[in-house]
Amino acid sequence: MIANGHYFANGLHIAPHASITSGKFAITQFGNVSIWDYFRNIRKIKKGLFLDHPEVKYAEASQIELFSQEKIYHMEADGEYIGHSAAKITILPKAIEFLLPPQ
User: Which member of 41, 43, 75, 101 has the lowest number of beta carbons within 10 Å of its beta carbon?
Assistant: First the structure.
């Protein structure tokens, strides 16, 4: 998953390291994770904690290229299916101005 915000689906913190102001995408990569692993970790995900699992990896990047040997990547954006293709995704720093509460 590639994100610039914490939340995904029904309030899941699938990218706890994401920040809309960092200028980078947060990448959460899931390998061979079973449904039982999901249920065992759902509380941690809802709390925004990092998962300590050998099949879960976290990274950051300002540009990502997606491709597959099969040459098909099914993609969705904000819960909507947007198509399939190889893709190059680049973040545009400060392209949108946000009003954030003081921290």
Answer: 101
